[in-house]
Amino acid sequence: MSEVEILRTSDLSVSYGSLVAVRNVALSFGAGSFTGVFGHNGSGKSTFLKSLVGIGGTIEGTVEFDGLPVAPGRTPDNVMRGIGIVPQSRNVFPSLTVSECLEAAGLRRGNDSYEQVYELLPLLKDRGSQRAGSMSGGEQQLLAVGMALMMRPKVMLLDEPTAGLAPVAADRVLATLKAINSRLGTTVVLVEQNVMAALRVVERAVVFRSGSVVLDAPASDLRSQKDLWAAF
User: Fold this and answer.
1) For residues 232 and 214, what is the distance between their CA atoms, to the nearest angstrom?
2) Distance between CA atoms of 84 and 82, rounded to whole angstroms?
3) How many CB atoms sit inside 10 A of residue 137's CB?
């Protein structure tokens, strides 16, 4: 992992009315790093991820990307700066073809990212004329990743990309993310419930509990624990 910091939070809290979902979190991510964020449902991990691109309830504290603040509520601007996000909903256009989805995703950047996307995701080139809505769940997730790549992000945020996928499809998605991280040097922050599979590809593990970080360690440390779930 690079020692150059690309993304950091300081005293970050996120609340929805009286509910505080994230509490005073301070984390930093090096350029080119690959981090898995884990925790039980309701632990605050997805809320934390969304706050990194300005999505959420009332966001307090600081989020900085590339040395400048990330403005809450200005997600399109933050994405244009180089923060890609792949939500759990997959965020593809079911009625459009694969090629049309990629074209729509790249409109504001120019469509010179096809070659890079097709090199990493040759399936999308092969399925260019297929309607996105007719693809399997795993294929749609790969298309969502490809759409995010069309913006040439420096950081990719992914919210449970393997949710609902069969093990083979889940492994394919995670392997693709590993390739994006290693070949392009893209910083990846991945929220996952599929902990064991994710720990095989991420470098660092962050565990949330009740909105706070309770573990921040190399992924190998968590993998080697006899009682993995005690960390949660």
Assistant:
1) 8
2) 6
3) 16
Residue 63: its pLDDT value, please?
97
Split at pLDDT 50, 70, 90, the class of 199 is very high
Please name the amino acid found at residue 185.
G
> Strands 155-159 and 187-191: what pairing?
parallel
How many residues are present in the chain?
232
Look-up of token digits 């590339």: 66
Helix H or strand E segment including 45: helix 45-51
Please tell me the predicted confidence (pLDDT) of residue 109. 65
Domains of the chain in start order, with CATH, are: 5-93+153-231 (3.40.50.300)
Place of tokens 């010179």: 112
Orientation of helix 98-105 relative to helix 137-149, angle to 10°: 30
> Which pLDDT does position 207 carry in this prediction?
97
The two most distant CA atoms of the chain are separated, in Å, by 49
| Number of Cβ within a 10 Å radius of residue 87 | 17
pTM over 0.70, yes/no: yes
